[in-house]
Design a protein that fits this description.
Elements lengths: L7 E3 L6 E3 L3 E6 L5 E4 L7 E6 L2 H9 L2 H6 L5 H10 L9
Antiparallel strand pairs: 1-2, 3-4, 3-5
Bound molecules: zinc ion.
Zinc ion (ZN) binds next to loops.
């Protein structure tokens, strides 16, 4: 049997390699904006994160997102991230 090659990326939270489609990409665009990249195709420097609360918490605790993106994250962006990842209800907004 031929083995299918699945592209793998490392989650910045748990540091495990996972298939790309199980991760969410967060990218810093050339404009210096940090956005969620649902398609995985936006240009810019990206980091990957499991769709998992714990991994986001770990990544935030170690400033992994900021280090990976070389960009500090605003409160507003963090909130957007959490909502975008489905961790928090956007109604608070
Ligand atoms: Zn993870």
């Amino acid at each position: 049997m031929k083995q299918k090659r699945v592209p793998q990326r490392m989650c910045v939270g748990c540091l495990e390699m996972k298939p790309k489609k199980e991760l969410i990409r967060i990218v810093r665009t050339p404009d210096g904006e940090v956005v969620l990249d649902a398609t995985g195709k936006k240009p810019g420097r990206g980091v990957y994160l499991c769709v998992n609360k714990d991994c986001l918490a770990k990544a935030l605790k170690g400033n992994k997102l900021e280090k990976g993106l070389h960009q500090s994250l605003s409160e507003e962006l963090l909130q957007r991230l959490k909502v975008g990842l489905g961790y928090e209800n956007p109604s608070k907004n």
